[in-house]
Sequence to fold (364 residues):
Amino acid sequence: MDIRILPLDPVKTKPVPTGDPGFGNLFSNRMFTERYTPDRGWHDATIGPYEPFVLDPSTAVFHYAQEIFEGTKAYRRPDGDINLFRPLDNARRFNASAERMAMPPVDEQDHVEAISRLVELEHEWVPDPPGALYIRPAMIATDPALGVHSSQTYLHFIIVGPAGAYFRTGFTPVAVYISDRYRRAVKGGVGGAKTGGNYAASLAVGGEAAARGYAQVLWLDGIEGRYVEEVGAMNICFVREGRRIVTPALTGTILDGITRRSVLALGRALGYDVSEEALDVDAVLADIDAGRITEAFGCGTAAVIAPVNRLGFRGRDHQVGDGGVGPVSQRLYDELTGLQYGRQPDPFGWTTRIAVPKTAASRA
Ligand SMILES: *Cc1c(COP(=O)(O)O)cnc(C)c1O
Fold:
């Protein structure tokens, strides 16, 4: 792919921030964009200044939410180079989401190349551990018309910004609220696609959970309200008797998380039993109360592993284990982050290394 690289205006160029960047409020100086039209396909691939889009108020995405996104990270290695984590898997999932939302696929290699070039140019924005550079690819429908049909034209863009440690106060467990009233997704719907509408639909109950002191919402299946699905922006796993990692099977209603896949493969390699099953919420809570389920954790790019110490359902709280971080959660977190940051070898071939000019690497 030919990517046009536009110069930055030195007057408008922001310095790399110092201190904890938090998450999602700071973006680097550049972004990638390309446009789609039926006659030309994807074209005008450009890395240029990070700046606002000018879009007509009638633009399709504003009205009918034809939109998809991805989330992945770039990690600073001990030698100063940078690791991407399973970028091609993200690109494939981007296209799976595109297909479900009736949007044109991108070239997966080109998508990864766009990320690599952007990260290379913005390498100074990759924080040292435990931070990382968050990478947000997205695609939106851009037809300036209100007809309800899939758009003819699209914009594919990638922005990046530094993210601090997910756990500000160390690796600490979170409480999870199981909603008995709202549902996130149904079979045949769009729960398996990474599309903004799924998040819009989850915000009301997120507020309800927060008001009651829970950090995350665990969703149950949309038909019977009985099977455990996933947690907000993370998949969910449980540990049985300290040695069996179980997670809900993919049924089309939950997202096929790359962290979830990595946990299953890594767990197997570390000698745990792993399985994907239908998990009945009452059985899960009974097993937690009886101590047969010894750990619970969410898994997703943002937190990698988020230990869960408490689940609230129908007005009752169920404490998992002793309420602390369990050994399996800790081990998976250490191993997976060790591999992502290049602190330990990657026998799975999950990391893609981006070399940084050595003068810049010596900055740290
Ligand atoms: C992104 C996301 C996840 C986690 O996927 P990862 O690839 O592990 O980051 C899980 N559930 C939902 C709904 C998501 O949007």
Summary: The longest strand covers residues 132-141. The mean pLDDT is 95. The chain is about 25% helix and 30% strand. Residues 71, 194, 230, 233-235, 255, 257-260, 300-301 surround pyridoxal-5'-phosphate (CB under 6 Å).
